[in-house]
Every structure is written in C-alpha cells, then in structure tokens.
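ok trying again, last paste got cut off:
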Amino acid sequence: MRRAPRLLLAAMFLLAAATPALAQQVQSRLAVEMHATDSYPEVTLAITLPAELIGNGSQDPAFSVLENGSEAEVVSVEAEATGQRPQDVVLLIDTSGSMQGAPIQDAKSAARSFLQGMSSSDRVALVSFAVKPVVVSDFTSDRGALIAAIDALDAAGETAVHDALVAASKLVSNTDRQVTFVLLSDGGDTVSINSFDNAVDAVKATGVPVFAVALESGEWDPQALQLLASASGGRYLGVADSAELTSLYQGIARELQNRYLVTYRSAGPNTKDLDVEVSARLDGQAVDGQVVFANPLYGEVDPNEPPPLVFARLAPWRSTVTIALAFVAMTGFVWALGAMLVRPAVRLQRVEFYDQTRTQQASLDDAPGTPGALRSHLTDAVGYVAGRRGFTKLLHGKLEQAGLPLRPVEYIYLHVVFVLVTGLLIGILSGSILVAVATVLLAVFLPIVLLENAIERRRASFEDQLPELLNLISGSLRAGWGMLQAVGLVVEQMPPPTSTEFRRIETEARLGLSVEEALEGMAERLQSDDFRWTVTAINIQREVGGNLAEVLDIVASTMRDRAELRRHIKALTAEGRLSGAILILLPIVELCLLLLVNPRYMSGMLSHPFGWLLAIIGLLLLVFGAFWLRRSMMVEV
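nice, full thing came through this time. structure:
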C-alpha cells in the first residue's frame, strides 16, 4: 500500500514524458485533400508537407500512393507556386473563458502572423466560438479588416467546438476555391448542440482538411482533435505554451504556400469510398497522410464498358427481330422437350378426347381473315398437336382437379400466347436477350405452378368439408333415404367444391353409372386419400352389409381428430416455416437489390467464370437448404 503512491507518480511521469513524443509523432504527418476527380480514373490530391520537412532540402519529395491498400500509379507531381492558385482559409479561434489573459493575446498575435504569411490573393474567414459560434468575418482578402476583427476578439463563456465546425462547413458552400480549416482550441466541447460525429460528418462532406491546433491545458481534449484531423485528411499540432502559437501558425502558412498536386491513376474499385494513403520521402525522412473521399463512379456504369451478361444494344428493328427469333427458338425448345417427355396417346385414348381434336363447326363459319377464324385455326392446330402427343389427357385431369371451366386445348392455347406475348414485350422493353430468355422460362413454368396451387387449395377445401359431408350423408341414411337421395341432399346443402363434385356424381348415376363407380371416379379425380378411404368403407359396407351410417360417423370423427392434430402441428411449426422462407428469400432479395442499386458491384462476380461457379454452388446449396428445411418441418399425420 505504501508503494502505490510511488507507482502512481512514476506512471504520471511516464505519461507526461510520452505526451510530447505522441504530439510530435502526430504533427509529422501530411495533410491530404482531394483536389479533383474530373478526369477519373485519374485523381488529383493536394498534399501539404509539414513545415519541418520543407526546409530539409531543395529537392521535391518522392510520393507513393496506396488506394484501398493497393499501390497506385503516380502519374504526375506538380509543386504549387506561391500565389499561383488563390485559396481560402477559415481561422477558427477559441474565445471561451479558459483563453482569458495571455492565451487569447497570443492567439491574436498568431492569427496576425498567419495573415502576413499568406498571399495577398488568398482569402481568409474568421470564426470565433465560445457559448456559440460567431462568423466574425466572411471570406475576404482585406487584411486591414481581418486584423481589426482579430483585435476585437474577447474571451468569455463556454466552448462550442462542434457547432463552430458546422458553421465553418456552411461557409465552404459559398466558395469554389481550395479551402483549409485552421482550428485553435484549449479545451473540450461543453455546450455544442451538434455532436462530435455530426461535426466530423459536416467537415468530411466538404472535403476540407483541418489543421487542429491544441493548446494544452487542464481541459484540453487531444483525442477528439486528433480524430478530427485524421478523418478530414489534415494534421494535429499540439503546443504546451501559448507563446509558441505564433511560430506554429507561421509554419502552417508556409505549408499552405508550398503544396504539391499529386495525380495518380485509380484502379476503379467498386467501393463506396476510396481510402487513400500518401507517403512522401525527402532526405531520408518519410511522412504519411491519409484521406477518405467518395468514389465518383460508385453505383454508376462506365459508358465505355458494356454491361456484363447483356448483349450490346442493336438497332430497334434488329433488336426486335433478334428477340422474336430467340423467343420462337426458346418456345420450340420447350415444346420439343415436352414432346420427348410425354408419351403419345394411343388410338383408344384419342377417342376419349375426340371432342378436343375435332373441328369446331361454329368457328369455321366465321368469315375468312377475321380474328375469330384465325383464332379457330390456331386452336385447332394446338388441339391436334396436343391430342397426338398426349398433352390433352394430362391437362384434362389437372383442369378437372383445379375446377377450371377450360378445355385442355384452350388452356394450352392461352399458355402459348401468354409465353410469347409476355416474353416479347419484356424483351423489347429491356433490350436484352438474356432478360427475354429468363422471362420465357418464367412464363412457361408460372402457369403450371399456379395450376398446381389451385389444385392443392381446392383439395384442401374439400377435405375441410369432408367431415360435415359424411355427417350429412349419415343423417340422411338414418332417416331412411337412399344413397342417391343423400347425394342430392349434399348437392343442395353443401358449398363448392363438394356440391360441384356431387352434382357430377348425381348426373353420372342418372346416366346409368352406379353410385359406387361414380364415387370411385371422384376419388381418383380429387386424389384425396381421406375421401378414397371413405369410398372404400362405403363399398365394403354396401357389399357385406351393416350400419353404414354408424361407419360414416366414426370416419367423420376420425377425420376431425386428424384435422385438429394437423392444425396443431401447423401452429407449432409456423415459426420454423417462417424462418425457412426468410432464409430462402433473403439471398434472392439481396441480389435483386444489389443489381438494382449498384449493378457494377456484382459485375465482377457475374462476368468471371469463378464467379459463376460460386453462383451455381450457392444456388445448389440454397436448393438443398430449402429441401432440408421443408422436410424438417413436414410432419405426417
């Protein structure tokens, strides 16, 4: 315990000894400012050397540039002659109460010496800050007015450094010259409305470097000023005695009059910001500096570089013809693929769908050349091909299951027209063959997916009505009605799709088909396991005898229990299914947003074979993940 005060004093001594070294290390840095990007990818930077490095030799320093960590080619280095390029400087002087006495007088003297070191064509603005910032003088080259404004400064009140930086940033919007901020403060911010982050963002938005001069005192905040200088591409300078301010300001004025314009060739990285590090070597000494500025081509497409994966735009008529031929070829490929996969119908099967392939006499009565006649001929052609290849039988069952009042020929005709019209329209508007092909594939499979979805929804609706249906038939049988009379009651009392299907059973029974055979046909048509078991139970009871009403009641009760269990499982797995949907859609949505907001960001991946390999692997993993999530959430009841 007795050694603790000694250790504390030793630590304080080491910290005090290290502080000047740290300040000196921070001071020996380059002030880097983004000067021009008009000739991008060539970027011009304004480099300000430290005063101690300027006087070490008569030769120009050697510069090297790192952009985003990669070495960039330095195109040219130009020394700015004194007075050749007029510039603007904003002097920000702390006039808080802690500056009273010698500090404020030394600060005034330093500001006057700074004016003497600048060129007569340079303009200077003066901003003082205490409780709030005050623009004492706007940009002017009148040295007499500036000296009078400096002499009128008085110290009193709190310190509002952040507000002063925001106010100075607003002055920059009124000038098109090269601007530099010279900030003097002896304490941390105490009363600013703006936060430190707001002040830094305001300075970075202007692209102005800040020479942060810290007068060491009991309230100084070197960390904030160092961060400010580093973020703006400026320099931090700390002094322990206010008497040193004059020589320090003279050195800053000398540095501003001996800038270098360094032009380098950017590699054009597709990043939002460009992080540039500049190193200057002279007489064996090396000094570094850093600046971050917005990438001028971020999110834009180089007009000299064709977009990746998009064919060069052709003349309008050539583009239309090319896209039309591509659609015809793509549609023919899809049709041929379907013809190879679907077996042709035999002659007996063609008889079943003879009404789909025969000529419609009403349509042929239309006058030649009219839209009705043309549509009739197209429908007949589609029906002939579909009937020969067996598409009609496949679609006949699907349309019956979905409950759609369409013939297979009509559905195929509408599907082909939808593919051609949608694909051609999107292709012509986008001017891209790849977009056209993608639209064709989507238009081919989208109606099929919607048809399957309609089938599933209709089957689920029927199975929800099945317990009530069985209770209605059971009650009819207990009342002494026959099976056909019970079917008629179902047609009257039940909503679709149950009433629609049982109306067909009633019609088939009146045409001579037995009720049992009609029910079996309905079970095959709906592909419902629950109803198939019900039909099996009805057939067994009608053959061997027994109480059919009681059997139907038992089956209805079992189905209600299974439906309740199915809904309970669906509720328990809702969170997992939602998580799976989010995980599957998130990469797709993110890819679409990136292609929409910044197409060049994805150009590297979509224009390189390795990028395509990564995309294919990612797609396979996404499909595998979707299948695995679906299987993990699926519970058989």
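cool. The CA atoms of residues 215 and 509 lie 104 Å apart. Confidence is low (pLDDT under 50) at residues 4-27, 301-314, 339-367.
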